[in-house]
């Protein structure tokens, strides 16, 4: 039984327990800040308009399920009390024979707000559940293989827009309790399309670009268009552009981003998605050698948005992209200043290990290219630090750093 892992679903909720508290909470959840709700559920103060006792009352609706897990299955390790969250989900780490890395099984509770036959679009994972279970103490990805389990598909989550990107950065594989065959049987075309999109993600990561493109163009996009979901259509078109860009079809990727993706986010007033799309446009322009326009976009249209949003990590990453353009234009000293003074200190302060090791490697490469008398020694120091962290995280960048060191003669 020690290799048995499961997560709660809607049928594990006892609707007869605390119906009043559940109804009140679900009724006001849409009006409450998702972050405030997440912090409260993780042990913080109740948001304005929410009764503090609702949390424990709603949790009681899972009591029978949790008792069954602890006593009948003798799997107390799968209960939230033993997790980094304390109220939702769990994380179990195992080492499989013949595999020199840990496997992290992340059980996510998407059922805690279930309660009637109209749960879709009203359920939440919460940002804190994802970050505390799928990341380390700093929120960074865990070393090894990360497998997440969740009962409900992203299409049924009210906070999918926040939680799915966080999971995408921290999880290698996401398995759901209700997947493609069920959607086909029920005629749930949206959820089927979402699952097909996830399959395309896996194929793209494996380098199977043609099949990933076919799925997005022929099976996902027509469904989204038929449903009339303009935002999802723009997101899907952006994913198609990602594949085209990976295949080197830059002109068509650029056309999609400029003509079909960007205008939608502008019309919706989604400033973050607009900034992200502009960044991808700048990537293409830089690849085509249009450095001045790429630099203008990053400085004038991307950077101010992240500064206004207070997103210090996105700002630092954008500054790194600006340094890339300056480096390509031969402005090495300014590129070095940005990386040293404005990028690396942010990653260090935030404890972003992977971003920091990549940033140190990029700075080392820039120093090698400049070639001043003291530059090789500083580059060696940076590469040593980057390699140490990459080995600790067990990520493939370690081999790339070793190759750079060999070329440098470390």
Description of the structure:
This protein is mainly alpha-helical and 410 residues long. Among the domains are: 1-178, no CATH class; 352-410. It has helices at residues 19-29, 34-41, 54-59, 63-72, 127-134, 160-170, 180-186, 189-205, 209-227, 230-246, 250-268, 271-287, 291-309, 312-328, 332-350, 353-370, 375-393, 397-408, and strands at residues 90-94, 103-108, 145-150, 173-176. Strands 1-2-3-4 form a four-stranded mixed β-sheet, covered by helices on one side.
Topology:
Blueprint: H1 19-29, H2 34-41, H3 54-59, H4 63-72, E1 90-94, E2 103-108, H5 127-134, E3 145-150, H6 160-170, E4 173-176, H7 180-186, H8 189-205, H9 209-227, H10 230-246, H11 250-268, H12 271-287, H13 291-309, H14 312-328, H15 332-350, H16 353-370, H17 375-393, H18 397-408
Parallel strand pairs: 2-3, 3-4
Antiparallel strand pairs: 1-2
| Oligomeric state of the chains in view | single chain
The gross shape turns out to be: globular
Number of strands: 4
Query: Approximately what portion of the residues adopt beta-strand conformation?
Result: 5-15%
Gap from first CA to last CA: 49 Å
Low-confidence stretches: 179-186
Q: Main beta sheet, described?
A: 4 strands, mixed
Helix tally equals 18
* SS class: mainly alpha
Give the strand order, joined by hyphens, for the main sheet: 1-2-3-4
Mean pLDDT: 89
One letter per element, helices H and strands E, the order comes to: HHHHEEHEHEHHHHHHHHHHHH
Task: Give the proportion of residues in helices.
Answer: 55-70%
Q: Rg, please?
A: 23 Å
């Amino acid at each position: 039984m020690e290799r048995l892992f499961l997560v709660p679903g809607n049928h594990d909720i006892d609707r007869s327990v605390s119906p009043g508290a559940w109804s009140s909470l679900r009724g006001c959840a849409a009006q409450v800040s998702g972050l405030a709700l997440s912090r409260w559920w993780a042990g913080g103060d109740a948001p304005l308009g929410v009764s503090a006792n609702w949390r424990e009352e709603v949790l009681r609706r899972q009591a029978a399920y949790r008792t069954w897990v602890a006593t009948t299955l003798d799997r107390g390790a799968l209960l939230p009390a033993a997790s980094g969250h304390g109220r939702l989900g769990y994380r179990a780490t195992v080492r499989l024979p013949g595999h020199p890395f840990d496997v992290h099984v992340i059980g996510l509770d998407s059922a805690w707000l279930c309660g009637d036959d109209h749960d879709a679009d009203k359920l939440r994972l919460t940002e804190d559940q994802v970050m505390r279970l799928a990341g380390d103490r700093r929120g960074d990805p865990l070393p090894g293989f990360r497998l997440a389990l969740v009962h409900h598909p992203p299409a049924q989550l009210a906070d999918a827009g926040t939680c799915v990107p966080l999971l995408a950065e921290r999880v290698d594989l996401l398995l759901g309790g209700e997947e493609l065959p069920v959607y086909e049987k029920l005629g749930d075309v949206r959820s089927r399309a979402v699952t097909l999109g996830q399959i395309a993600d896996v194929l793209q990561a494996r380098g199977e670009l043609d099949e990933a493109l076919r799925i997005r163009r022929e099976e996902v996009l027509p469904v989204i268009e038929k449903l009339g979901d303009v935002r999802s259509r723009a997101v899907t078109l952006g994913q198609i552009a990602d594949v085209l860009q990976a295949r080197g079809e830059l002109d068509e990727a650029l056309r999609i981003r400029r003509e079909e993706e960007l205008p939608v986010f502008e019309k919706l007033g989604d400033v973050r998605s607009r900034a992200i799309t502009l960044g991808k446009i700048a990537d293409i322009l830089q690849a085509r050698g249009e450095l001045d326009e790429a630099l203008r976009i990053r400085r004038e249209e991307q950077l101010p948005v992240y500064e206004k949003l207070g997103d210090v990590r996105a700002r630092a990453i954008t500054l790194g992209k600006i340094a890339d353009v300056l480096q390509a234009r031969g402005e090495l000293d300014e590129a070095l200043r940005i990386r040293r003074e404005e990028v690396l200190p942010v990653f260090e302060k935030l404890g972003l290990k992977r971003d920091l090791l990549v940033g140190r490697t990029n700075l080392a490469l820039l120093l090698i290219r400049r070639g001043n008398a003291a530059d090789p020694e500083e580059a060696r120091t940076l590469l040593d630090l980057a390699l140490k962290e990459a080995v600790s995280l067990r990520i493939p960048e370690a081999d790339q750093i070793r190759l750079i060191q060999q070329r440098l003669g470390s």
